[in-house]
Amino acid sequence: MITKRLFCHLKDGREVHCYRITNCYGEYVELLDYGASIHSIVVRDRDGKMGDVVLGAEPDRLEECTYVGGTIGRCANRIAYGRFEADGKVYQLEQNLFGHFLHGASGNYAKKLFNGEIAEEENRVIFRLHDTGEGGFDCHVDAVFSFSFDDEGRLELNHQMEGEDTTVLNPTNHAYFNLSENLDARDHELWIASEERVSRREMGLPNGGSIRVSGTPADFSKERSIREAMSQKEDGERYFTKELPSYDEFYLLGDRKYHHAATLRYPANGRVMKVFTDMPCLVLFTTGDRKAEEGKNGQVYEGYCAVCLETGFVPNAVNCPQYESPVFRKGEKLSARTVYQFLTDK
Fold it and tell me: Taking the CB of residue 203, how many other CB atoms lie within 10 A of it?
């Protein structure tokens, strides 16, 4: 069942709507047409207790809150110096991160109002956007992002994009997950289907290489808690560069075959989230040293309040031919699929 309601008005007066998809167990997902965002995911724990496992904003703070699970596009994450070359042409994008391009710059989809529609027979909500080339891009793109939620607890995200000419297409969803009843995600256990992370240079820019994670705090090839990984004694080169350790790591998943990419688990209540995708990279991001913000239901988001598991192409892959390319030419379409499945340990 899908319902639609008015969520709020933006500062310019435009209406934002909330779409709720409910399964046969009463679990539900709420989506906003602002940013094609995941607003709520309310699922059971092992005792049948319902709880919201994703962070978000109250209506009056939607445009300011940085914990909204929006869809990032047309290109998520970083492009070095906002510059890339394709088919002999050099493209210069906006530089909104210390001289580099990040998350679509001024054209970030997470700040756009999409046109939403309900496909009731598929238990699916579809968001459409015509991107006119903000952020420094010089061609238009049509984006269609759909979300479904079923009785197996599967939240499926399908990203379909096509440009009128050569461009970069690399969307992702930036939901902030927390499966527990408290706002400290470090006792979540994590497994990632990768033994290699992307090698990087200054400002976290991938440089075309890879590094084995074995024996480092970045190793989640065997399931362990984030707290345990963060407290691992470093051997040799220092892993964490900040005083307060946190992750912003890019894991190589291989080719674009659809597969199980990660599992996030909270043992205390039995909630489990499995991630499946056909994209070649998984970004692990944990909050840490960000300023405190007011979130949903009067909660204050601060410290290690959430974990992000974002799928897509490797950031800056457009400048690193060693990684699968996110460049699409006229007539070529991006089709990407990611599933977050919510289960319980019995």
Answer: 14
